[in-house]
Each structure stands twice: as structure tokens, then as C-alpha cells.
Amino acid sequence: MTATLAPISATAPKPESRLHQLVPRLNRQSVEKHSDAYADIDWDSPELAIGADDPRCGLFAFDPLAQTDWYRAQTPEVQARIGLHRVCAAFKVGMQFENLLQRGLLSYAFRLPNGAPEYRYLHHEIIEESQHSLMFQELVNRSEMPVKGMPLWLRLVAPPSVTVIQRLLPELFFFLVLGGEDPVDHLQRRQLREGTTHPLVETIMKIHVSEEARHIAFARTYLKDLVPTLSGIRRHMLAVRVPLVLWIMAPLMVDPTRELHRHHGVPNAVLRQARTSPDGRQLRKDSVAKLRRLCRELGLITPVARFAWKRVGLWSSDSGEPAPAV
Ligand SMILES: [Fe+2]
Ligand SMILES: [Fe+2]
């Protein structure tokens, strides 16, 4: 089977497609359960006030930086500042990622014909991402942490590239979507399950996790419909590109940023130790575990791709397990 450029990217999915069956349910859920960044969070409540010296903001217990002797030796005030900076850096990257994702989804929706069922869902998702971006940026503003988010080269390259990728390589675009959403979802779910944090951060993460489940389901289902229709060469290219883009994206979402050295005096050697420790490596691998299993399910773990996954440090022996159902 050979894929044309526009099958799912610019026309409605076939009636029997998984996406076609999923979209009405997602649309209904988006209406029944959605959040507003300002109506549903009482930002000015004294209990939710947040600042640099708030003792409720330490690093998450599973954060590799929290395992270092250097961090353990710091005063509670320093630990709180580092923890808050880490959360704000992740939220800033999240906001930038969602901005890029929205551009791609808008480009997709722009080309759809009348009556395309996914048009409505795409706009539900774009609206939800706007609410998330409002929440993330509001927390960054109130914390007054000097976070810049993505590195400069990516802030320059990504905005003009994303709509081109969505148009020409929709399969890669939706892997990029999952490359941003899956690691964040993994970290937020783990934190909500395993530890405590500032109540404002927890509120934002709960809202985010519940709405991201729809976005992740849409992207995974889109890929399950599209990838089997791609030509062999295009599937091979995708199989190798996925680990390469995750090599850039997973550390962005998971690793401690160098800003911690500039603004809070965390030694570069300690940041390196956190990134390269067994816990640090495992956290990056775990953050893309669902993507590895999706690639396996889609036949994208070719010998060359497996080599690439290993080279970028994201391969794991769990990669043979089937992916969870969406
Ligand atoms: Fe989001
Ligand atoms: Fe999302």
C-alpha cells in the first residue's frame, strides 16, 4: 500500500477508521470534562500563593538531582528555590511545546473539508492546550523564576518548521506530539502517585493529566490508522527518525536545565551527575516507554531503528511488551 500526502492530513478519515470511531467519544468528553485556567483555579487564594522560598516546593523525590549529595546538603530554602525553578522550567517548555502543537493542529484543521469529523475534535484540543498554556505561564509569572524554556536554537527552528512537518510528514508530526506529551504525562502521573508538592502545582498537574489523556489517545489512534498505509521507505525513515527526535525531546522534558547553574549555583558537575546517573538514564527511558511500545506495535523497530534507539540511550528491554490500548 502506498500513502499519498494528504490522506488523513487533509481529508476525513474513512468511516471504518479507528479515528472515525474514536472522535465522537473524545468530543463528548471534551464538552463534559474540561477546565478553565482562571475559572477553575483560585489563583489569589492565600493557600495557593507561591514564591521562591516556599518550603512546599522541593524537588520531586524521584528527580535524579534530588538523589545527589550536593542537593541533600543544601538548606530547605535553597532546595525550595531549585525545586520551584525545575517545575517552572518544565512548565515553560510545556507551554512552548503546546504552542507549536497548536500551530500544527491549526494547519491540519485549516485544510479539512466540510463535514470532517476530526475538525471539531482538533479545535477542542487546541482550546484545551490554550487553557494549559495559560495555567503554565501564570504559574511561571507568579513564581518570578527566570526560565526561558527550550534552547534558543529550537525556539528559532521549531516555529517555522512545525506546519511544514505537519503538512509533508503528518506521521512524524504526531510522533513529535507524543514525544512532548508522553514524557510530561509520565512525570506528572508519577509525581501525583508518589509524592506531594505545592497545592497549586498539584492542581495544575491534575487538570493537565486528565485532559492530556484525550490528546494522547487521538495522536496514537491517528498513527495506528496512518502508519500501516505508508510506503515501505517512508516507514523505514519514520522508524529511524522517531528515536532521533526523542533524543532531543525527552531530555528537554526530563533533564535538569543548565539555568540551575546560572541562577541557583548548582555546580555543572552535579547537573551532569544527575543526567548521567542510572536513575537519570532510567527516567528518560521510562518517559518514552509507551512510545517504544507503540513503535513495536506499528512495526517501527527495524534493526536500524533499534540501533538508533540504543545509540540515543532510550532503548529498554521492556520494548517488546505490547502497547496499552488507547
Ligand atoms: Fe497540554
Ligand atoms: Fe496535549
Short account of what is shown:
The protein has 326 residues and is an all-alpha fold.
Question: Would you kindly provide a written description of the structure presented here, covering whatever features stand out?
Answer:
The protein has 326 residues and is an all-alpha fold. It has one domain (17-313): Orthogonal Bundle (Ribonucleotide Reductase, subunit A). It is 68% helix and 0% strand. The chain contains 14 helices and no strands. The longest helix has 35 residues, at 76-110. Mean pLDDT is 92; it is low at 1-9 and 321-326. It binds fe (ii) ion (2 copies).
Characteristic key phrases:
binds fe (ii) ion; 68% helix; Ribonucleotide Reductase, subunit A; disordered C terminus
Furnish the topology, listing elements before pairings.
Blueprint: H1 7-10, H2 18-32, H3 69-72, H4 76-110, H5 117-143, H6 152-168, H7 170-194, H8 199-226, H9 232-254, H10 259-264, H11 268-276, H12 278-287, H13 289-297, H14 303-311
Helix pairs in contact: 2-5, 2-8, 4-5, 4-6, 4-7, 5-8, 6-7, 7-8, 7-9, 9-14, 11-12
One fe (ii) ion is lined by residues 129, 181, 212, 215.
